[in-house]
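Reading is simple: the token line describes the chain's fold. The lines below illustrate.

. . .
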Amino acid sequence: MENTQKLSIRELHESDPPVIAAAFARMGWDKPEARYRQYLLEQLAGRWFMQAPLVFRAILGLLMDLAIPSSLGAFVMAGMRLRSEGGMNFEASGGFLKWLLWGCFLLSLPGVSHWLVQESVPGAQQLAIAGATGAQYTAGIERVTNDFVDDVLIGHIVPVVAASLVFKAILDMSQGYNPLASIIAALFLLGVQGFYNLATGSWMQTGDAYGMTDMLMSMFGYAANTISPIVGRLALSAAILNHVRHRPWGALAASGLAFLSVSGIWALVTHFAGVNL
């Protein structure tokens, strides 16, 4: 005869401990009622949760650990997208910013998991402690992935791609196009390792839930305070050279002054918007 009885999984109730203890006693097992009373108290205090099996925790820990080398891959893809979007500029909603965002998110994933725990998201506690339990059958995958990213991707593939962009810059110049687009993208790719070191060093101000946004703001500060003044001086030099050669120089001079004033312009924008960052 078919058994139509339905089973359900739920939390412990006040009336459950004596029923569970009696059921085990009928089977000859010594499971005292006091044990389940203690489980009930821990459940009411919010300290009792069921851990996932070791294999699932090991796989989840592997994914958390692989987030770091994956961020390097995301920064490499950002460099490729920078060339696709023009090299000297990027689209507001294009792939360059998206890959940068993904790279920062992967680097700050532990902080995001702690934020989920603070927000009492179900299962977030397992994500926060995933990397604490290692397993031999996932250690090999993690080692191979790290070696591939460090030795193959960053050590060999990225220099080849950067060299091809430099060659493309020469071809662009031979056809009358601006070679700076390919050169800037090549410089970005060759500097991915240093970019990553900055992201995990001085840009990673905190490892808390807002680590990703702090990293992005530090990235903007680096662009505004370090890169922009260099670009501004180059633009003003080009404007002076064009003025001497009786060529259009106004746009170069204006952009040079704007690059030198990025921090001030940002401060004005935030002041007018009434935002305190």
The radius of gyration is 28 Å. The chain has three domains: 12-48, 50-206, 210-277. The chain is about 70% helix and 0% strand.
